[in-house]
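To assess whether ligand presence alters the predicted conformation, the chain was also submitted together with cobalt (II) ion. Input:
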Amino acid sequence: MPHPSSSYDDVSFFPEVDPIIFKGPGSDDPLSYQYYDKGRTVLGRRMEDHLRMAVCYWHTFCWDGFDIFGAGTFSRAWHQPTDLVEAADQKMAAAFEFFEKLGLPYYCFHDVDITPPSPNPDDLARNLVRAADHLAGYQERSGKKLLWGTANLFSHPRYAAGGLTNPDPEVVACALRQVRDCLNATHQLGGANYVLWGGREGYDTLLNTDLRREREHLGRFLSLVVEHKHKIGFKGKILIEPKPHEPMYHQYDFDTATIYGLLKQFDLCGEVHVNIEPNHATLSGHSFAHEIATAVSLDMMGSIDINCGNAQNGWDTDQFNLDVRDITLALVELLPSGGLDTGGFNFDAKVRRQSSHPTDLFYGHIGGVDALARALLSAEKIIEAGVLESFKADRYSGWSQDLGAKLLHEAADLDHLADHASANGVNGSHHSGRQEYLEAFVNRNLV
Ligand code: XUL
Ligand code: CO
C-alpha cells in the first residue's frame, strides 16, 4: 500500500526562509552556511558523511517554550489546531519543511513526539503505527532519513519511578511494550540506530530503593531489547545515552565508563554502544572530549547529541554548541578511530525561550551546523599536522623497548618486575608534558 501523502503541500510554516545553502565564509547572509559545504572532502570523506547531522523533533517542534515558571512563548502555527490529530499532522508537515529547507540528511524522534497525546498505551500503540506510516511517506518524498528513534519512558506519571527499573512490574511491562513498538517503528523506517536514554532509570533516595535489584532489572531488560533487535533483523546500533542526574538524583547510566561497567556485568559489550551528549558530559564533571575518548577506547562509540550547557550554572540547558574549540578537541579524539559509523550528530538543542520567532529555529541550527563544520576543518588541520600523534608516540616510546615489553609480558609477576628496579636503580626521569605548547598548537589551527 502506498504511504499516505501530505495534505499540507500548499501550506508553508516557514514562508520567510528559502532553502539554506553554502555561501562561504565571506557571506554576510545569516540564513546561509559559511562553513558547511556538504560535498567538500575532509580527511577522505564528504563533510555530510562525516557529520551525518540530524534535527530532533522534541526541542524544535514539540516544545512551546514553557518552563517551570511560565507558559509557552512560541505560539507555533502547528500547535494551534484544537483537534489533536490535526495538530500532530501539521507538526509533521512543519518538521519536514524545516528538514528540507535546512538541508541536513537525518532526523530523530521519541514515540510521543510524532503522535497526538495518547490517553493510554493502546492509543499510543495505534497512533504510533499511523505516525510511522505517515513518516515513511515523508521520508520517501523528501529523501530524509531517520538517525534514531526512542521511546519516552519518563514523561507519563506512571514512569515517575522509572521505566525499565520501576519497582512495579506492571509499569515495566508497559515500558517494554513501548520500547518494542518504537524499535519496530524505527526498524520499519530504516532507522540507523535506536536510543535508550535512562530518563528516570535511577533513584532519588536509597531509603526506598533496592539498588542491586534495579541494576539487575536494567541489565535483564537491556538484554531483551538486544534480543528483539536481532529477532526483527534491525541492523542499527542500540545506544544508551549517559547522563549523571536530572531528572533523578542518581542515575545508573551516569557516564560512559559507568555504562561500560553495566555492559560488562550483563555481558552486553559489543551489543550496546553510547550516544554521547556534551551537556551530559559536563554535568558529570567530564569534558565532551573525555567522553568521546573513553567511548573510543572501550569500543563503545555510537552517536552524538550535540549541544552544550551553560558554563556558569552547569545545568542541562541544551543550548546550540558554538564552541568550535570544544568540538574540535572531541573530533580529534573521534576521527582517528574512523569517525562515526551508524551514528551522527543530532542537534539535541533548543532555542532560548525568548527566541520565539520560527526563523530563530533556523538561526539556532545554522550556528550549530557551521560550528561543527569549522570544528571538522580544524580537526583535519590538527590531525594532518601529526604533532599530537608524534608527541604521544614519543611520550610512550619506552613501552616498545625492552623494559616496556618485560613489564607487559603476561608471564612476569610483581616480584620479578620489582627486581628490575632493585637491580638497576631508578633510571627514569621527568619529561615535560608541554601542555601549554600543545594547547597553543590547537588554538593556532582553529579555522
Ligand atoms: C535528555 C536527553 C533526551 C534524549 C532522548 O537530557 O538528552 O532528549 O536525547 O530521550
Ligand atoms: Co540527548
